[in-house]
Specification:
The chain has one helix and nine strands. By secondary structure, it is of the alpha+beta class. It has two domains: about 60 residues, no CATH class; about 40 residues, no CATH class. The strands form three sheets. Strands 6, 7, 8 and 9 form a four-stranded antiparallel beta sheet that branches. A hairpin with a 5-residue loop joins β2 and β3.
Length: about 110
Amino acid sequence: MLNLISKQTIVMGILSVMVLIFLLIVNPFSWNDAGNRTVVERTTGEQIVQFAPGIFYAGFFAKEKEWPNQISVTYQESVADLKLEDNGIEVGQIMIRFSDATTANVKGIT
């Protein structure tokens, strides 16, 4: 049976398997699950955040970290100004703290 398979076919088969393994290691594509975000740092130093679920291009040899989309809200100023201005009620300034410890101040009108 070995006589039926040439050396060139065996070498091409081995090279094909090696190339496939190499491509699986340096796979430039990544997967993001629904309800999560993936932070990607590319080899150039560029950082991107992928929010949409599904397959996306991350880049060769990119580092990826997946985080859940979770936000906790804390109120620092809960006193609302109930004066009517332009048919709206001002709800005051609210400080929002995200799960990565960053904060934002939000002011709203209902």
